[in-house]
Specification:
InterPro entries: REF (IPR008802)
Order of helices and strands: HHHH
Number of domains: 2
Pfam families: REF
Radius of gyration: 28 Å
Helix content: over 70%
Shape: elongated
Largest sheet: none
Number of strands: 0
Mean pLDDT: 75
Family: Belongs to the REF/SRPP family.
Length: about 150
């Protein structure tokens, strides 16, 4: 097709060529805007329709999940190497969770619509569970929970 049209290309005014190029650009922008608007609409609908149900389930099962987490923590502390690993992993996890929360909050406020719907990590709860009031880890050197 290109070979057939190339002899006629010199007869087509540059204004027509430019208009054709602009029309393609506008069409792609319109398509992109429609995709973004559709994604926003779907996200808004999911959040509106399923948000209350998710919150209800979270409130209902949060206590049970915390109880299982505490039981698991105490059980793991009985293992010989776990307390030493936890001394490294817990503070590192807290650091990266704090960074994740900052990125999600800042991007949600500034430019990323989807980030506003991402969950924040419960850094305060994790810190409270794994540290005592003095800021010391809730594990002893011999692996027993304090």
């Amino acid at each position: 097709v290109d070979e057939l049209l190339s002899p006629f290309e010199c007869h087509v005014p540059s204004v027509v060529k430019h208009a054709s190029s602009q029309a393609r650009t506008v069409a792609s922008k319109v398509q992109r805007v429609r995709v973004v608007d559709t994604a926003k609409s779907i996200t808004r609908n999911v959040y509106t329709n399923y948000g209350p149900t998710a919150k209800e389930m979270y409130d209902k099962y949060e206590v049970v999940a915390k109880q299982y987490a505490a039981f698991t923590w105490r059980t793991l502390n009985r293992l010989s190497l776990f307390p030493q690993v936890a001394q490294v992993v817990v503070p590192t996890n807290a650091y990266w969770l704090k960074k994740y929360n900052q990125v999600v909050q800042q991007s949600g406020e500034k430019w990323c619509v989807v980030a506003a719907y991402l969950p924040l990590g419960p850094n305060d709860i994790i810190t409270k569970v794994f540290m005592d009031n003095r800021g010391a880890p809730v594990i002893s050197s011999n692996g027993e929970s304090i």
